[in-house]
Amino acid sequence: MKQSVIIVVFLAFLISASSAFAQGSLRVVGLSDNSSFYPNSSVPKYARLEITFTVEGTVARNFYLPFDPNPPSGLVVGEGISVDAELTPDNWNTIYTQPAFYYQEFEDQLKNSREWFYPTGNFYWKVRFAPNKAGNWRYRIRVRDARSEIVSEEHSFLVSESSNKGFIRVSQVDKRYFEYEDGSYFPALGYNMNYNHVSWVNPVLDNRTNFEKMRESGINFVRIWLSQWSIFGSHWNPWKSFTNHGGDPPLEMLSSLASEFSDGEHDVSLVVSKTTPGECVFFGSGTAPIAVKPNTRYRVRVKYWATDLAGGGGFVVKYGPWVGCSGAVSITPVVSQNSSSWRWLEGEFTTANVNYIDHIYLALENVTSGRVRIVEVHLNEVKSDGTLGVDVIQKPDMDHHKYFDQRNSYAFDKVVKLAEENGIYLRPVTLDHREWIFNHTNFQGLPTGDFGCTDPSIPSTCPSPSYLYGPTDRSISKNRWLQMAWWRYLQARWGYSPNIHSWEYVNEGTPGTEHAVAADIMGRYFDQFVANKHMVSTSRWSGSTGQWNLSQYPGIDYADIHFYIMKQSNPDFFDEAQAVITASSNWGASQSLSRWPVVRGETGFVGGDTNSPNMDIRRDVNGVWLHNYLWAALNSNALIEQYWYEGYHIYDCPSPPGGCRLTFDHRGKFRPFYDFVSNIPLNKGGYVSADAHGFDSSYIRVVGQKNPQSVKAHLWVQNKRHTWCAVVGGVSGCPSSWDGSRLNGTIAIGGFPAGVSMPVEYWFFDNLTNLTKQTSTLTVGQDGEIVINLSSFPPNVVDAGIKIGVYDSGSIGRGDANADGRVDGIDYIIWSNHFGQSTASGSRDGDFDGSGSVDNMDFRVWMEGYGN
């Protein structure tokens, strides 16, 4: 990051001229925290402690990168600054370190029914930390730059107990499963929310209803694509070619700077060219519009280098709506002369009565040839005295890998808060394996050139994904060092939150050692943050999880495999339950061999042998396919599913590819399954395959597990004829039609103490997956077997969840009817409104003990939980 950019764009008007760049002694100023905002000035356990301060007297030039006295080749010695909090719950016998991050303040308002985030010139340092135990805590700030190192004075704060279960981890006993830090089971249920399905444009307005619906439905595990927010790196950045801005990722008009253009400060530039796609590059696709003030003067400043311009026209900067380069309004004069050095092009305009600018255009007009490289684009408010205010444009510097976008960081703050409020755990993909800058920077920290190989005989001049992953000898290259700076920022800004389930290194990295080593290094990096530790994973698109050789990569916490269910090549396509069971058998976590959970991070029912969503399944408006898909996951191989085509097959979401709109919302299918499994202590160990027998397997399917030690079992029993395509009818290739046949016969499960009487819960589902519940008792025979008589089920039952044994009824709702994380008077009102009624909706109707009726026992559960 160049000092000029830091001063003009990011660090301008920090506090005063004596703060950020003063040559005095290094010092921490204005140290305070948010503990007084909590009841009794006590931070609840696992809640966010936020410490705010400024740092004065530093010689650092880039506040986004940590200080390193000996960085790898390609980086500037002593350019950054390391700011960390040290915290202790026991008077410095135990010390936790949490990195600080540089924070920009935004004006935050609603304008034109959109969220208007206007950047200010106010910057601070912040520390966010979730204390993991109650008691008296202390903290201090440690700062180090190229000239000195200091430690601030100490401050203290109180931490109180809370009902928060803590961070998610791999079970300490049965590593097929995840659990909360308090040791309770985490039922990971959810799907992918790709691209703008988690909105960064309006992070509250566009996401709140969706998150609330997920909470109501028991959906708690969502894979999102933080890499597409372009907070770090070049992929999905807002600068794109006007003629080719689609694709995955969109076409990037970046270029590694050749030596004749380099001034020792830049690594990459934006290119507007007559000879490569796009004579016009624009800002605005896939990002928030630029927030501006109405009737206000702004100055645009572009640092450029023009070559080979011919034809009488030249380079110009414009702005306007989506009208294209020719129809936009010019801001600057037209540059028709070639450059011999970096130059600045400037222009001014005054906004109309608007709060947003949609697009900025960088255009070549009326030229027959030419190429312009741009390394900086700034848009500053012009103050009344003629001085420049804050830069309002995102990603103004094309060295996208040397700073972190503050606007979308602020938006993600809000998304994480929504996740916390709604009990949703996010799994962000943090980097794109196709990242242009890192694929074009070799192990020596040098650019490989614009496109292709400058010299094929010298591999270091050729772009390669190996450069992104880094050397397999684990040495620190420039790219790896910059990624570690990104990991540091992830931990500093969002690592405090238990609702970050884990970090995913890259999506579908290249199978092999280099990818595994990089992910392992990432995991080991996050292992140092003991009190606020998050798991790390990565994902693969081929091979088996057994090929990962985990003994060599202890930093990777769980496996991820991607595999789609293709109509023409997968025999399970028309049997959604069997598709899950087969995948679990192929990739799942065997209870005897597993050292980690396994997630199928992407899957979906696709047409032909291409990864395009099957459209026939949308005819299943009752969600039979999703119901069967979910309940089949009770099999003992414990594969955790995250469906891909949620916008095509589950619910209507923003702008799905192809623009399809759905008339149904299947998210409610998750709720019964969540309620069923949430109080089964699978993470505590002892569960093995139920090995049910004695039934006609030609038309009955039974999956599940038993725990002979704790005398528990759970099953899903299904009429195998009841598939989505059979129920819908008329689907090409479907092997059967629904005949309405009922369940008959018996099921036996062995291995239990003879003569023991066991309570049983029956969760009955009819043809349209409507739920009713019954309870009874069964006695174990002298042969140690439990026998379930299917013929006794109501005739309309096509499948059933069955729980055998004594379970913690308090975990079914705990008196929290509206699922807001609190047991309070609202939950009492819900209970009283349904008192005396039968219900299949569980705690949502006040049936806190899961008995199927709302009665005085549920009131007792509410009373026990009140206030938690």
Describe this structure as you would to a colleague.
- The protein has 868 residues and is an alpha+beta fold.
- The strands form ten sheets. An eight-stranded parallel sheet has the order 31-30-29-15-14-36-34-32, covered by helices on one side. Strands 2, 4, 5, 8, 9 and 10 form a six-stranded mixed sheet that branches. Strands 17, 18, 21, 24, 27 and 28 form a six-stranded antiparallel sheet that branches.
- Helix 2 links the parallel strand 14 and strand 15.
- Helix 6 crosses helix 7 and helix 8 packs parallel to helix 9.
- The protein is globular and about 95 Å long.
Spatial strand order of the main sheet: 31-30-29-15-14-36-34-32
**Quick check: average pLDDT?**
89
Ranges where pLDDT stays below 50 over 5 or more residues in a row are 1-23
**Helix-and-strand structural type:** alpha+beta
Number of helices: 14
Short description:
This protein has 868 residues and is of the alpha+beta class. Helices cover 15% and strands 29% of the residues.
Key attributes of the depicted protein:
eight-stranded parallel β-sheet, six-stranded mixed β-sheet, 14 helices, alpha+beta
List the SSEs and their pairings.
Elements lengths: L2 H8 L16 E7 L8 E3 L4 E8 L25 E7 L7 E4 L1 E11 L2 E16 L5 E10 L4 E3 L3 E6 L7 E3 L7 E3 L4 E2 L3 E4 L14 H10 L3 E4 L14 E3 L12 E3 L11 E6 L6 E4 L6 E2 L5 E14 L3 E7 L8 E2 L12 E8 L5 E2 L1 E7 L3 E14 L5 E4 L14 H16 L3 E7 L4 H4 L25 H5 L8 H17 L7 E5 L6 H15 L7 E3 L21 E4 L2 E2 L9 H12 L10 E5 L2 E2 L17 H8 L8 E4 L2 H4 L20 H8 L10 E2 L10 E8 L4 E8 L4 H5 L17 E4 L7 E9 L5 E9 L6 E4 L9 E6 L20 H9 L22 H10 L3
Parallel strand pairs: 2-10, 14-15, 14-36, 15-29, 29-30, 30-31, 32-34, 33-35, 34-36
Antiparallel strand pairs: 1-3, 3-7, 4-5, 4-8, 6-7, 8-9, 8-10, 11-12, 12-13, 16-19, 17-18, 18-27, 19-26, 20-25, 21-24, 21-27, 22-23, 22-26, 27-28, 37-38, 38-39, 39-44, 40-43, 41-42, 41-44
Helix pairs in contact: 6-7, 8-9
